[in-house]
Amino acid sequence: MSGTGELNVDELLSEMAPREVTVRVLLRQGLLTDHARLERELELAVKGDQRENRTPLAPTISKQIVDLEDEIDAAKREFTFRSLGSRKWSDLLAKHPPTRDQKKNDPRAAFNDETFPVEAVAASSHSPKLTVDEAQAFQDGLPKLEWQALWQAAAQANLGGDDSPKSRAAGVILRQSGESANTAADVE
Fold first, then answer.
1. Domains along the chain?
2. How far is residue 26's CA from residue 37's CA, in Å, rounded to a whole number?
3. Which stretches of the chain drop beneath a pLDDT of 50?
């Protein structure tokens, strides 16, 4: 604020920073196949260990599963998306209007869902910076939910979201330690 108590617009403008949203995506989907296979092996091993007089196999397979879960977590890659700003987002949106068929199927359709998400992911990508062709390759190669995570992060960076987030975990921890918390209560 300026010395007169009035808001200084230049100071307010200097506080603005683009919104960034980071999402972690598993690119090595074969690891999930390996995990499912080990889960089946564990189920059979538990039954076999109960039936047969043998050195139990379940603990060894359990360790393999835990190690694989660590590998899965380490294999996730971070993608950071940055807001384009309202005008650039609107301009990009205007370049991808819904088709007649899309409007017929959904009168509320705001964009061409076949072209806009790829363009938006590429335009909003910050780290790594993606080209349209690279964003298209991710859409084509990833399972739908993994692609959706990228697209939703790009959209959230540009559309905004909860400006006053509340952490349930932080609230629970502070309340358990006897401290006051201005966080969300744990709802059960």
1. 16-26+78-170 (3.30.2220.30)
2. 18
3. 188
